Amino acid sequence: MAKDIPVVVKQRNYVIDLERLLFIMLIVMFHSRVFYREGYWFHFGNMGVEFFFVTSGILMAKTVKEKYLDSSRPIWEREYTFLFQKFKGVFPYVLLGYFVIFVEKIIFNDSYKSFEGIIRLFFKSFWELIFLRMAGLTNQVTGMNDPAWYLSAMFIAMFILFPFLVYNYNFFARIIAPAIALIIVGFLMQNYGTIVCAIGEYDYFSLFGMKRAIAEISYGIFIFENVEMLKLYKGQYTKIARLFLSLFEIFGIVITLVAVWRGYGHDLSPVVLLFLGLSIGITFLNESIFTRSFNSIINSWIKRRHTNKYSVFNVRLYELCTSLFLSHYEVIWIIDFYKQKIFSEYSYPSVMICYVAACVAVAYINVIVVKICTQKCKKIQLRSVFLKQSNDIYKSADIDN
């Protein structure tokens, strides 16, 4: 029997994946307020979204700098390619979550059990399915799957920012991006007293959530460009410098968690955003003692354990995080329907433990379902390509004869 051949594992920053899981868990806990309004944990857990917007800005700038500054193609073509690549990575999870929650709404809500109700539900939630919920095309504040508002805001913000970033990368990343972040954050603080207010409030041609997305993605772009400048000194960092980076990296995460737990999320939200962004930037720099040590340990372990065998049951952490973010409302609507019976028999902490465990289990199942469906679609696509090539060969043979 042939032995398994070890896979060449791409070096990945697993600290970012770990932080991604941490902030998704904050959001999952925060959303428990749907079925438990009094005394729920992490009242400001929605600040976890700030992590994802800043990270999205960093990754957007990284991708643009590596792949999309080639002027041989028009900007619109590069933009649509960039957005499509991001779209196809998350859409299967969005579609699966949408379908499951759509069925749950029909089962648990009497308003949608008739044919007319089903049609009305579909049209009310249609913009969410194609990532345009945050464009203001509907007066529905809440959607089918509430966390999907983030994806809508992210895609629209990137659609707006991408042409300017590509047209003059250095000027935008170093000057315009931080200016956009400062102006919008200042506007939100002066008008709302926070940057994490209700996402659906509309003023001055956009929803609150859109302003939040544009400001924080711009901040992420600025962070990435500064990280790139610091990478020029790679190999020159002393142990003291790496220790200082580690302390600052951890401090940014800790201050965010304290703000979320103690309820400092509104009036101090710009300060939290500032330190959180700097912490994320240090993690991407990959020069701190903590990040280098953690990544080295995980990458070494993966090289020893992984082989070339593929299985849909092997779920990576970033896949689980994406699924968990977009699937936990599948669990929420079930608990919300049975909440009177559940909370009459069990305490809130017990329910929360079961809720989180159920969310993780559902997320894992969703990843497997998406992998199986994607695999089958690829096989169908390959089969159709093969048949087309075969037909072309037969046609050319007939012509020759």
List SSEs in N-to-C order: HHHHHHEEHHHHHHH
Which percent band covers the strand fraction? under 5%
Structural class of the helices, strands and pairings? mainly alpha
The assembly state of the depicted protein chains is single chain
Distance between the termini: 47 Å
**Unreliable stretches covering 5 or more consecutive residues:** 1-9
Kindly provide the radius of gyration, computed on alpha-carbon positions and rounded to a whole number of angstroms: 23 Å
**Biggest sheet features:** 2 strands, antiparallel
Tally of alpha and pi helices: 13
Q: What is the global morphology?
A: globular
Total domains, how many?
Answer: 1
Helix content: over 70%
According to DSSP, the number of beta strands is: 2
Average pLDDT over all residues = 85
Strand order, sheet with most strands: 1-2
Write up this protein.
Strand 1 (202-203) and strand 2 (206-207) form a beta hairpin. The model is unreliable at 1-9 (pLDDT under 50). This protein has one domain. It is mostly helical. A two-stranded antiparallel sheet has the order 1-2. Helices cover 73% and strands 1% of the residues. The termini are far apart. The protein has helices at 14-30, 48-67, 75-108, 115-129, 148-167, 169-192, 208-230, 239-262, 269-285, 289-305, 317-337, 339-345, 348-400, and strands spanning 202-203, 206-207. The protein contains 13 helices and 2 strands; from the N terminus they run H-H-H-H-H-H-E-E-H-H-H-H-H-H-H.
